[in-house]
Write a structure and sequence with these properties.
Helix content: under 10%
Order of helices and strands: EEEEEEEEEEEEEEEEEEE
Number of strands: 19
Oligomer: single chain
Strand order of the largest sheet: 9-14-19-18-15
Shape: elongated
Radius of gyration: 19 Å
Strand content: over 45%
Number of helices: 0
């Protein structure tokens, strides 16, 4: 099915699509598109340990699309339009965890966007807390947070969010000093 657009649909259960081998198919492409009616997640998997942009698989949902190009060994992602994928996150640093109505991520190339929607306050028992993300970070990066809610009050401190190389845990600090 090289050189074709594969429309992904499904409303009853999440499912998996196995790719053909990338070996011996260098320069050949396959396109995947999540149609508007798709209500479940589809996981595209490489065979025999073959990777997709360095990962074992790639998820796609409603209206997402990407082209996969064989490099003769693995698969490269081209022309991606991201789609938001559901994620179940885990919090640490709370005696009472916040409630998250929606946690999603989107991959565009090797960049991940992560969002917690309708996050309610929890009860923290520390000056830092952590949240899990679906992938390990490629490098350590600090992101400044200009608005930090601490004890229900907007803090005058600038906080930070840290992703650490090789970890799937983000750490939120209430101040830059931590």
């Amino acid at each position: 099915a090289f050189g074709k657009v594969h429309l992904l649909s499904g409303t009853s259960a999440n499912y998996t699509v196995d790719l053909p081998t990338a070996v011996g198919n260098s320069g050949k492409s396959i396109v995947f598109k999540g149609v508007a009616a798709l209500t479940k997640e589809v996981t595209i998997l490489g065979v025999s340990g073959q990777l997709i942009n360095g990962l074992a698989g790639r998820k796609i949902s409603t209206n997402g699309s990407f082209t996969l190009l064989s490099n003769g060994t693995d698969w490269d992602v081209l022309n991606e339009v991201g789609s938001w994928i559901n994620h179940s996150t885990v919090f640490n640093g709370f005696s009472v965890d916040p409630t998250v109505l929606t946690c999603k991520y989107e991959l565009v190339g090797k960049t991940m966007k992560f969002t917690l929607i309708n996050l309610t306050s929890g009860t923290s028992d520390d000056t830092i807390f952590t949240v899990t993300i679906p992938f390990n970070a490629a490098f350590t990066q600090d992101i400044l947070l200009s608005l930090v809610l601490n004890g229900g009050v907007v803090s005058t401190n600038v906080g930070k969010l840290r992703a650490t190389t090789g970890s799937n845990v983000l750490t939120l600090y209430t101040t830059m000093a931590l």
